[in-house]
Amino acid sequence: MTPASPALFPTAHSYADQLKQLHEYVCGELVKANSQSAEQFDKCRLPTPQFRPGDRVWLSADNIRSLCPTKKLDYRCLGPFSVSEIISSHAYCLQLPPSMKIHNMFHVDRLEPYVANTIPNRVQPPPPPVEVESDLEYEVEQILDSKVDHHYRDPLFYLVRWVGYGPDHNSWEPASNLTHASDLITEFHTANPTRPSPTHCETPPLSSFFWGGILS
Which residues in the chain land under pLDDT 50? Predict the structure, then answer.
């Protein structure tokens, strides 16, 4: 049996060369494809906004604990706040109120340029909370109703209309949440003397159960 000609079978060296060439070709195609994808992405991506000290910006409310009295009042963005310092092209420091008690440096992805309202009759966004004794409190416009629910430790509730919000955002709030709206509460009870008030939540003295009460 005549041995086959060595030319019919590639040597180990030539086989390795072919694998190397194939590997280089595949890697080159991958690099080309990635480059084309990156180029296409860059064309579609909006340019990173650049801010200067003094510019006003909106801050994304993501991962910032809300002090809203009701979830319906939560903001998507907070502010506007002024830029106080440029850390880099992708990081800025903002001038925040002390009551927020969070670090004031943010990535540019969390910031949006603030544009003042210049269109007549355009509805402004809801107002931010007002600062009361180092806390954030939403401003009460009117007390609409009251009720007593003894399932709660604080049983007296008021139906509240909030400044800058429509009827869909009205919410029942315990009286303990409305300590800074005492004038409005007094005004409500003066106009509606038969509605539940703090006197409806007082525990009657023990003697009332004996004199004219349960055991009389």
Answer: 71-73, 130-135, 205-216
